[in-house]
Write a structure and sequence with these properties.
About 35% of the residues lie in helices and about 30% in strands. It is α+β, with helices and mostly antiparallel strands and about 180 residues long. Strand 5 (about 120) and strand 6 (about 125-135) form a beta hairpin.
Length: about 180
């Protein structure tokens, strides 16, 4: 990618999408999730078969406004806790171009959300950066394996994620005693 080329989706478009996610109330029921995703322009929302009363995972969502993005979501006790979007993973995009796109997006998010709370060093095949913004965590990861690479952007509700992690920790402790 040359300095004049920008990845698709463009950083400003992805930022606008993230802002639209964190600037509205997050769903507290399955019915609210359907409306939430529809209002944000998600298409082809598919429910994963691992759903139960505690945790539900959805996947295979398409987000036309982000062009090449696919996504999945996670809910705990029917309350949305996170959305992850996979971008810059088209078969024709070389790992170096994907890593360059990550750097462009990282600089854009740092400009918009401030200094990252986590900024892992480059290992060559992976990177991770996390920002805290308005009660949400914005996590961004770069990963490459052989000739394939992608960027994952995750948006999670901080309070709900903490409740989920506490519950999972309690379940693990209970099952190990």
């Amino acid at each position: 990618m040359t300095s004049t080329e920008l990845p698709v989706p463009r950083p400003a478009v992805l930022h606008q999408f993230v802002q639209s996610l964190i600037s509205r109330p997050w769903p507290r029921s399955d019915a609210e999730q359907t409306v939430f995703f529809k209002e944000l322009g998600f298409e082809d929302v598919v429910i994963d078969e691992r759903n139960d009363d505690e945790i539900s995972v959805g996947g295979s969502m398409l987000i036309p406004v982000l062009a090449s993005a696919t996504a999945f979501w996670t809910a705990f006790k029917h309350e949305l806790i996170g959305v992850s979007v996979f971008i810059y993973d088209s078969p024709g995009m070389a790992p170096r171009a994907t890593k360059d796109a990550y750097a462009v997006l990282r600089a854009h998010f740092t400009d918009k959300f401030g200094t990252p709370t986590v900024d892992d060093p480059d290992t060559g095949s992976s990177l991770a950066t996390v920002w805290a913004a308005d009660g949400f965590l914005l996590q961004m990861y770069y990963s490459s394996h052989r000739a394939r690479a992608f960027v994952q952007v995750g948006i999670s509700h901080s309070g709900r994620t903490a409740i989920y992690e506490t519950a999972v920790g309690a379940n693990i402790e209970a099952s190990s005693t």
